[in-house]
């Protein structure tokens, strides 16, 4: 039992369709690399996948995420990896997309949408880390105040992103994402989630990741199709098509899935993610939740080994996910029970 071996052996015929190089994926999964070397390998692979779409600039955010996570370990050693995790989630999502959806009568997610959602759903994490870094500083001020014995309101600091939702041509990310969410349909108020995040002094990396990806790609479309015309538009002697229809039907839905993937589970009390209605958000939530192997943390320096996990599909088209760790199984089961319709998912 080894989930990396399962993914590699079952996906080698799908690598080309998803922009993956066979040898690079093999090296990433099986070469005995130090953690930073493995992160760098993941970044190189992600860069190659997105370059073919003219969106290699997004790789810079992954590089920044790796730099911050490495540099912050002494201050916040609890921080888990989100770079290697992104590529492993991406590979796991390919497996689910190719072997779980169609046998159950659900539409597969487009390869490009899965590239965006699977690879970039956590790039906003540095802002969440930043919020956590300043928390001890704030707590110390309030602690001193209490020791002195002076009664006064607690000090609060907030990280507030300003202008990230404003796109070119007077478009607004909240409106675009809300329109997409309403079609799924989900009982989620996009702008209210952002405003609640600010009021509570928290940072939801899913919200920040979605707004960032949408903002950056919108700039690219503005560069190559400034009139945002619904016609095939090619630039720089490439086969990359900047037709506005692609922005609306591929980019916005991918960012919408990213936006909601890390929301509190109670946001799905009235409308859980259904693969028959919202395949992309379902796929992202499922792959992100299941990807628990090889994620270093404070209590587990190397992460849980891949040979403690596996994935298979039985004769009734059920997804069977195996973990030898009961704590991990319970954690996964709890999160999935609250957010997705998972009657075809079996945890063992």
Summarize the structure in words.
The chain is mainly α. The protein has one domain (3-347). Helices cover 53% and strands 4% of the residues. It is built from 13 helices and three strands. It has helices at residues 3-11, 22-30, 35-51, 59-71, 84-101, 111-120, 125-148, 173-182, 190-199, 205-224, 244-260, 279-290, 326-339, and strands at residues 309-313, 319-323, 345-347. A three-stranded mixed β-sheet has the order 1-2-3. Helix 6 packs across helix 11, helix 8 (173-182) crosses helix 11 and helix 12 (279-290) runs antiparallel to helix 13. The longest helix has 24 residues, at 125-148. The radius of gyration is 21 Å and the shape is globular. The two termini are 13 Å apart.
Features:
globular, 3-stranded mixed β-sheet, 4% strand, 13 helices, single chain, 348 residues, 3 strands, mainly alpha
Helix and strand arrangement:
Layout: H1 3-11, H2 22-30, H3 35-51, H4 59-71, H5 84-101, H6 111-120, H7 125-148, H8 173-182, H9 190-199, H10 205-224, H11 244-260, H12 279-290, E1 309-313, E2 319-323, H13 326-339, E3 345-347
Parallel strand pairs: 2-3
Antiparallel strand pairs: 1-2
Helix pairs in contact: 2-3, 3-4, 5-6, 5-12, 6-11, 6-12, 7-10, 8-11, 10-11, 11-12, 12-13
